[in-house]
Design a protein that fits this description.
This protein is α+β, with helices and mostly antiparallel strands and about 350 residues long. The chain has a single domain, classed as DD-peptidase/beta-lactamase superfamily (Beta-lactamase, 3-Layer(aba) Sandwich), CATH 3.40.710.10. Helices cover about 45% and strands about 10% of the residues. The strands form 2 sheets. Strands 2-1-7-6-5 form a 5-stranded antiparallel beta sheet. Helix 2 packs antiparallel against helix 14 and helix 3 crosses helix 12. It is globular, with a radius of gyration of 18 Å. The N and C termini lie far apart (about 40 Å). The structure holds glutamine. Glutamine binds next to loops. Glutamine (GLN) binds next to loops.
C-alpha cells in the first residue's frame, strides 16, 4: 500500500539520512545530560506552529494549542522537566497501552494474541476497512478496534467493576489519581458512532467479549483520562522499569507483561506512522489525539511530551520532534551498536 510520508517524520528521517549528529559512545547518562536534553528540545520547538488540534472530537478543538510540556522520569525515580507541567490534556489513545497491559497481566499474552491479534493494520487508527480486510482478526490492541476489544476483555463482572479495574490500573502506572475530563468524555460519547460501529462489527465477527455499547463507553471514558507530561512520563517510566513504578515502588504489572506490551507498542504505537517512527527513533512509543506522546527507553527512563497540534496521522508534531531530539542527544537509540 502506498503510504503518505508525513511531514514531521519526513524531516526526522531527512536528518538521520544526512547523518545527523550521533553523539557520545554509549555510557551512563548524567543528570545534567537529561536536563540539558529536555531544556534544549523545549527551547528549540516552543515557537513551532505546525499541525492542528484534533477536531473530530469537538471538545479537543478548544484545547489551547500552545500547551507544551516535556518530562523525563528515570527508572531510579528522578524527574527532569521543561515547559508546562500544570496543564492536563485528555490522553486519548494512550490508555490503550495500559488496558492492554492489564489484560496481558490477567489473561496472559496468548489471550491477546488469539482474541485480538498483534500485527499492525497499517491503516488509520479508526479504520473499518482494516477490520473487514482481516475479517475481524489482527485488529491490534493499540488502534481503536483492538483497543475496544481489549477493554471488553478486562476483568470485572459488570461495567462498574471493569471501570474500577481500568482506573486503578492507570492510577498505579501514574502513581497518582487520574481524573476523567468530563467535557471531553461527554463530547466524544455523544459523537462516537464510528467507534460504536467498530464494536458492533467486531461483535459480528465474534471478536467482542462484553456488551459492545458498554465496552465502547468504557473505552471512551478511558480516552478522556486527563494527565500532564510528568504523569505520562511516570507511566512510561513504569514500563521502562519492568512494570514497577519507580516513584511509588509499586509493582503494577510483571516484567513478562511489560516485555509483550513494549513489543506491541513498537508495531502500532504511532498508528500508521509506527514504522517511520521506529526507523527514526527506535524506542517504543504511544500517542493520543489529545497531543500526548510517551516513549520508553527500557531500563533507563520514560519520556513524555504534550502539545496538542497533530500531523495527518494524528500524532503530535512537537512531541515527535522533541522526543526524537532527546533520544538523539542522550544517544539511546536501542539499535545503535558499537562493533567490538
Ligand atoms: N478517543 C479517540 C478515538 O477513539 C482516541 C483516538 C486516538 O487518540 N488516536 O477516536
Amino acid at each position: 500500500m502506498t503510504k503518505m510520508i508525513h511531514s514531521t517524520l519526513r524531516l526526522l528521517l531527512t536528518g538521520i539520512l544526512l547523518g545527523a549528529t550521533i553523539a557520545l559512545p554509549a555510557q551512563k547518562i548524567k543528570k545534567a545530560d537529561y536536563q540539558a536534553a529536555v531544556d534544549k528540545a523545549y527551547e528549540k520547538y516552543k515557537r513551532l506552529q505546525e499541525g492542528k488540534n484534533a477536531d473530530y472530537i469537538k471538545e479537543l478543538a478548544t484545547v489551547d494549542p500552545d500547551i507544551y510540556g516535556i518530562a523525563i522520569v528515570t527508572t531510579d525515580g528522578k524527574v527532569y522537566t521543561a515547559g508546562d507541567l500544570d496543564s492536563r490534556v485528555s490522553i486519548q489513545s494512550i490508555p490503550k497501552l495500559f488496558t492492554m497491559a492489564k489484560v496481558i497481566e490477567e489473561q496472559g499474552p496468548r489471550a491477546v494474541f488469539d482474541k485480538i491479534g498483534v500485527d499492525a493494520t497499517g491503516m488509520r487508527f479508526n479504520s473499518i476497512i482494516a477490520i473487514e480486510m482481516n475479517q475481524g482478526k489482527e485488529i491490534n490492541p493499540l488502534v481503536n478496534p483492538g483497543a475496544i476489544a481489549a477493554t471488553s476483555m478486562i476483568s470485572g463482572l459488570d461495567s462498574v467493576a471493569k471501570w474500577k479495574n481500568i482506573l486503578e490500573t492507570h492510577n498505579d502506572f501514574a502513581g497518582t489519581e487520574l481524573k476523567v475530563n468530563h467535557p471531553v468524555y461527554v463530547s466524544e460519547a455523544n459523537d462516537n458512532l464510528r467507534n460504536q460501529a467498530i464494536a458492533h462489527l467486531l461483535k459480528a465477527y465474534n471478536r467482542m467479549y462484553f456488551d459492545p455499547v458498554e465496552a465502547t463507553d468504557l473505552y471512551t471514558k478511558q480516552c478522556a483520562l486527563n494527565a500532564n507530561a510528568k504523569e505520562l512520563a511516570v507511566m512510561a517510566a513504569t514500563l521502562a522499569n519492568g512494570g514497577k513504578n519507580p516513584v511509588t515502588g509499586k509493582t503494577v504489572v510483571s516484567p513478562r507483561t511489560t516485555t509483550f506490551t513494549l513489543s506491541v507498542m513498537s508495531t502500532a504505537g504511532l498508528y500508521d506512522d509506527s514504522g517511520q517512527w521506529l526507523f527514526a527513533v527506535g524506542l517504543p512509543a504511544k500517542s493520543g489525539v489529545g497531543g500526548g506522546i510517551l516513549a520508553v527507553c527500557p531500563g533507563k527512563f520514560g519520556v513524555a511530551v504534550i502539545s496538542p497540534p497533530l500531523n495527518e496521522a494524528g500524532n503530535s508534531v512537537k512531541a515527535q520532534k522533541a522526543i526524537y531530539d532527546i533520544v538523539r542527544d542522550l544517544d539511546v537509540h536501542p539499535y545503535r551498536i558499537d562493533p567490538k
